[in-house]
Amino acid sequence: MRKIVKAEILITRRCNLNCFYCGIKRKRPERDAAFWREAFRRIKALGATFVPIYGAEPLVYPQLVEVVAAAVEVGLDHTVISNSTLLSEDLAKRLVDAGLESWTVSLDFPEVRLHPPSTRKRARAALRALDIFGTLGLRDLEVVMTLGRSNLCYAPDMVLRNSFKGIWTSFDVLHHDRGMPWSKCASREVLKDELFTEQDADKLAFVGEVLASMVPKALIHQPSRYFDMFKEGYPYRLHWHCLRSFEKFGSPGWITVDCDGSLIVCDDLDIPTGFSILDLPERWDEYMEVWQRIVRSCPGCFWSTHWMSGEMLGRSMMDELLAHRTTWGDVRSRLGKEVALSDV
Ligand SMILES: C[S@@+](CC[C@H](N)C(=O)[O-])C[C@H]1O[C@@H](n2cnc3c(N)ncnc32)[C@H](O)[C@@H]1O
Ligand code: SF4
What we know:
The protein has 14 helices and 9 strands.
């Protein structure tokens, strides 16, 4: 039985930027491409079909081309999520030649000038990277938009502009550290002007409804049910919990592998579990016991990709969809367009 649908790979914890909301950087050892080839085999053996490769910033990792080639060799769909500031045309071409199938950039407003100073350079680089990979004919180009109070009203505009260019959009909402140790998110104090609160309930419900109505036609990764959850207060209560998927299926639907090969409970809660990816699949049950014990103390989150992994795990139609060896983008588009997902 499939244990997971994806494994998140934090290929490095180094980054050349300092976005105001992010605290994911750490000093931590890294592994070489040969290690990742073996890790990908184990991830595949767990039933996963998709690896998002990110970190902090994957372009500071010296063997990214080789790691992409390893994912292709093992037969895992993948995307690289990058700030793209270090992307040259030559490197982009080498990545495509290695079999890269998808590139994801972070963009919080549809225009560079609207970004705050700490994310403006990343926005400029993101637009340039989309152009470079678009010219090289890369099939799956994606934008991830981190929603906060000041950019919420631009979300439909972002989807329209990207869809017209054949670029996918996916969303996450801004998270703060929620008082947990080792969170990847900046503190509530730093983010206080941007975090959603109950005061934003009407606006969230409205934008959620607009986005849900765009799902059937636009290139949006999330299914409409995700946006329906906006009117239920999920973006400010952050009360979705991966234990719900665990209780149903014996797995949250994904694992997170840190740059040193260790397993962490998720990329937000960077709490060591004492396990390595090389312990799986053999020690899966033991790992799930430890994972469960740690996440019980988490008050919840609303990470869209984790929510979707939980949703997908229990659905047999995923086997049919994935058997077609489509890209992750195709799978998500079909989930969004043809499948009415029920409550978790
Ligand atoms: C940690 S970055 C790593 C990849 C790459 N360096 C980049 O910026 O695209 C991955 C995503 O996490 C998002 N992120 C960082 N801090 C966040 C926070 N506090 N809440 C929600 N998303 C956050 C970023 O906007 C980015 O889209
Ligand atoms: S969001 Fe990405 S680019 Fe910004 S500091 Fe974090 S890892 Fe670096």
